[in-house]
Amino acid sequence: MRLTPVMQRYIVHWGEMGSRWGMNRSVAQIHALLYLSPEGLHADEIAETLGIARSNVSVGLKELLGWNLVQITHSLGDRRDFFLAQHDPWEVIRVIIEGRKRREIDPTVTVLRECVAQLKSDSETPTAVRERLAAQLEFLETVTSWYDSIKTLPRKTLLKMMRLGHRIAKVIGD
């Protein structure tokens, strides 16, 4: 696959962002390449286009399959696996958010719940620390509850809500 300078810039940037999100840079670059590709690519094409080792491509593709960001497809008469990325940007971001929530937020909520429960039989922990832990738990439970309630809304409804922005606050008041 021939990459234009704009495509190269996007792939490099997506790799940098992926590393900030907790994903290996090469994995994120593979995802970016597949996102831009109009058709599925096989592992050798990916390795050649990005200039990364074939073994790294294989590991990266397995990770992307685990994230549900790519799928395997086949071509008649070709035994190789071809990899195709989800091209819907809403779905890509939804999958990334859901994965990060599952790996980062959910375990934190679990630990905070355990800590707050332990405080019931703990007389040593200072009041200020107790309040901070309870406040952080309340915040994360509120955010995750809100997320769980909106993630299944139709895209059209979500788009309207997003476009309303701060005007929603005027409607519901303080």
Written account of the structure:
The protein contains 8 helices and 3 strands. It has 174 residues and is mainly α. It folds into 2 domains: 81 residues, Arc Repressor Mutant, subunit A (Orthogonal Bundle), CATH 1.10.10.10; 84 residues, no CATH class. The protein has a 3-stranded antiparallel beta sheet. It is elongated and about 65 Å long. α1 crosses α2, α3 crosses α4 and α5 runs antiparallel to α6.
Distance from first to last alpha carbon: 54 Å
Percent of sequence in beta strands: 5-15%
User: Total number of β-strand segments?
Assistant: 3
Give the helices and strands as they follow along the chain: HHEHHEEHHHH
How many helical stretches? 8
Helix and strand composition category: mainly alpha
Supply the number of structural domains: 2
Low-confidence stretches: none
Which percent range fits the helix content?
Answer: 55-70%
Taken from the alpha-carbon principal axes, the silhouette is elongated
Average pLDDT for all residues: 93
User: What composes the largest sheet?
Assistant: 3 strands, antiparallel
Give the strand order of the largest sheet, numbering strands 1, 2, ... along the chain. Answer: 1-3-2
Radius of gyration: 21 Å
